[in-house]
């Protein structure tokens, strides 16, 4: 069965998988977690306009690489510019379109699956992320890989390859680790600055006050932001960094457990061992015995 391909914009790409195929994919043990139903590239898409009063059955990803456009949800209009990546959750009513004077180039996909909620921050609102193409040229490469694989025919090997590329695409676009020169928002900046401070003081017993005094946030604010961005409280995250460093010493040095404990800020070897076991699921001694690699 061949995918449906339509034509609207010069040099466009557009491919829609037959519903029978997507129904089969939705139960496949490898592909069902995350899969594509529609994919396309619209260059210089003047007058491009879509309105869905009841939303779409799939999540929609739009990556604008040139020009600009807009999206309207819940009566709010958001400008979409070059390097913006937009995710519209499934079933959310929306309108989006290109700017008439400066029409956008967009790569787009419709996707769903059992794991799609992990890539959607909030089912009731859109997500707009700044993703400079110069920083992530892999995204357009992955798009071409997905499109080309599906264009070769909808056999299971091509579909599985496309689904794996989709996972990589979304991970790179939405979860790429940040660095000090690439903060995406103030919350990320607070977390990254705190983590760098933790790493440079791994041998100390930092308190929440030590962290908030650097960030200018209250204890509640910093804790809430840390939980949102990392899933852990600041102190719990710091403990895990310490244990990660301790694993390095256990793997690559002959230092004793007590020496390693001191290197990561614990004078009490037994307290350190209890923390290590809680995080790693085994004692430092047992961890060292495990063959790795």
Task: Provide a descriptive summary of the structure in words.
- The chain has 2 domains: 13-175, Sandwich (Jelly Rolls); 186-289, Homeodomain-like (Arc Repressor Mutant, subunit A), CATH 1.10.10.60.
- It has a 6-stranded antiparallel sheet. The chain has a 4-stranded antiparallel sheet with strand order 3-8-5-6, with no helix packed on it.
- 41% of the residues lie in helices and 20% in strands.
- The model is unreliable at 1-7 and 179-183 (pLDDT under 50).
- A hairpin with a 2-residue loop joins strand 5 and strand 6 (76-81).
- It is α+β, with helices and mostly antiparallel strands and 293 residues long.
Tag the structure with descriptive keywords.
10 strands, alpha+beta, single chain, Jelly Rolls, six-stranded antiparallel sheet, Arc Repressor Mutant, subunit A, disordered N terminus, four-stranded antiparallel sheet, 293 residues, elongated, 41% helix
Question: How are the elements arranged and paired?
Answer:
Blueprint: E1 13-16, H1 19-25, E2 35-42, E3 49-52, E4 59-66, E5 68-73, E6 76-81, E7 84-88, E8 94-98, E9 105-112, E10 127-130, H2 138-151, H3 156-175, H4 186-200, H5 208-215, H6 219-230, H7 234-252, H8 257-263, H9 269-280, H10 284-289
Antiparallel strand pairs: 1-2, 2-9, 3-8, 4-7, 4-9, 5-6, 5-8, 7-10
Helix pairs in contact: 2-3, 4-6, 4-7, 7-9
